[in-house]
């Protein structure tokens, strides 16, 4: 009996200590005091961030399709002029590959961070709102919730990347984020329209995040091939 | 009323007026006035100078001839002869091959018979400024090519095509386009096939190049390929269907074990990010040679088989003939020997001598008298208390040769001994070993009672449990999910120790009855001491007091004893 417990404790100890050795990007203390405990390479961090962003984009695409189907089943013809749906961000985002390739790593990272932080709250609101719908498909709800959680871990990851690549302590560029006013409307159509625009515009921004991260990764890992031109 | 044949007809003004009534007039190149009857019949009439016709009869005839040559009753369905403002063009599709430029194509509507020019205008998202297409020619007719400078991603373009001719304009429906949604690359290039003949696994290799305009290196787009192939069947057979394989990001792909002698057709296509698949590349062909390495294989197989046969034959012959080899290959099986049994004696046929060695003194015992008290060991699986049937059963079987104060009734919660089959108790005991031990407690009470007591040990740890009765020398095992033991006057001593040899002989004649699959009725003079419920709690196995019993059950029994004694 005692032997078994002792063995279990030993195994647990070994496992925990291993975990302590490898560490996790979120738990990594400051670079100065880190020493040997935080040894995830930049390449791996970037790889994980890219995977996160890729998955988030794919799931957001599925969310949008599910929402479209739901609208059709509701019989609603939203006819939203797509061109006017997404509010322009305070920070201008580059619009073409050439433009993006000319901006610095610092700018890319900060843009990503701004985008990520912008969408955390609206998605939570949409999740709450979706739960009030009469017959929202559960797949849509689970996906939306998944996106919210993954977005927060992406935010953590981007902060770590900023620390590692730029050496900053998570300095935020620009002023305080604009908090969009809590949208409360008793009109069902307005609520649906708002939710749809969140999902639609988020999908677009998720694509941006993914593209920026991929470019950043290429630049950091393989400097020769990914040069500006 | 009208002569509906095509050609020149003479009509009176009244008829003409009637015909012209409510008709739309348009001009055609061949006459100065043309009436288009319109959509239903499509006929058109070319009229000149109706007034001339009427005013001067003499001239009328001259004019009439002229006019007549010019009056047409056109075919019923011809529209084209007549001119109109253009029909609406329609934007058919927009595509971006590499997410940096894009092209839109449209389909013209009717031209209305006049030379029509097309212009494409666009607006960017949430801005009102209108721009015109930067390049109408690069992508062919009826197209508009947006180069890198004019392409922005992640914003919506609102595009309209306008067709205009001398008579008017027509606007197409507006289309909203975001470059990220319309990505469809060009097909991969330079697909070539090579057949590689390796020893045992021939294969052919498909290689290709990415489309030249896609920037796959900088991470701007992530490209994925798909290969498909099929065997080309010459002759009348139907073509086999395509087999598709996903090839990830690599630029080559191997097809193993192709059919010898077959003609393969291979195509590759690609996709950027989550966009649309490109068209399939032009087919590449390869012919697999026959008889790849079959002959080689066959020879090998034959050689190996022959060798094996020869080897087996040799071994067999040797085995049969040479004794040492035989012993080596087929060692003799030891014959069973029963100690005390001599096969020679068997042959001689004297039975007493044969079996003399087998008989141990005192075995088998004659069945005991039936007035012995029945010992009823019950270890129940459930908490409920035993019914009084058992109690009554026991009491009725009490023999006279027992002192009544010693004879304890088996009250509730008596121990039920579970056995899987009543036949061979000893083996069963060693197999089924779950019980809890409460030995010390029992010994204490037994000391109190002053009788040679027997303790019931139920050990949950896995050692065989022997419920042994001093007198009966029975062994029985117990199952204990919830072994309930009631305090009674006398206890049943159950030896727990796995290592110890059985100190008492088995007495199978004590089994007086087998009630069911797992209940044995043993005859004994000493009743069982029941104990309160003992929980077989495996998690509390950590503590062991005296190495014999479990704390939880022990505590419970302690309390029960203290309450009852």
Automatic annotation (TrEMBL), chain A:
Identify a single GO molecular function assigned to this protein: growth hormone activity
Q: Which domain of life is it from?
A: Eukaryota
Q: Name one GO cellular component term.
A: extracellular space
Q: Which UniProt keywords apply?
A: Disulfide bond, Hormone, Secreted, Signal
User: Does the record bear rRNA-binding in its keywords?
Assistant: no
Q: Where in the cell is it found?
A: Secreted
Q: Which coarse location class applies to the principal site listed for this UniProt protein?
A: secreted
Q: What's the short name of a Pfam family annotated to this entry?
A: Hormone_1
Q: Could you confirm whether the keyword DNA-binding appears in this record? A: no
- Protein's GO biological process: animal organ development; growth hormone receptor signaling pathway; positive regulation of growth; positive regulation of receptor signaling pathway via JAK-STAT; response to nutrient levels
Q: Which residues form the signal peptide?
A: 1-23
UniProt record similarity statement: Belongs to the somatotropin/prolactin family.
Indicate what this protein is called per its UniProt record: Somatolactin
Automatic annotation (TrEMBL), chain B:
**Listed PROSITE patterns:** FN3
A GO cellular component annotation here is: external side of plasma membrane
Q: Any idea which UniProt keywords this protein has? A: Disulfide bond, Glycoprotein, Membrane, Metal-binding, Receptor, Repeat, Signal, Transmembrane, Transmembrane helix, Zinc
Where would I find the Fibronectin type-III domain in this sequence?
A: 85-182, 187-291
Name the membrane topology term.
Answer: Single-pass type I membrane protein
The family database entries (CDD domains) matched by this protein are listed as:
FN3 (cd00063)
In alphabetical order, the GO MF annotations are: cytokine receptor activity; metal ion binding
What SMART domains does the record tag this protein with?
A: FN3
Where does it mainly reside? membrane
Spell out the subcellular localization from the entry.
Answer: Membrane
TM ranges are: 299-322
Superkingdom of this protein's organism: Eukaryota
Q: Does the keyword Transmembrane apply?
A: yes
Tell me the protein family, please: Belongs to the type I cytokine receptor family. Type 1 subfamily.
Identify this protein by name. Prolactin receptor
From what organism does this protein derive?
Onychostoma macrolepis
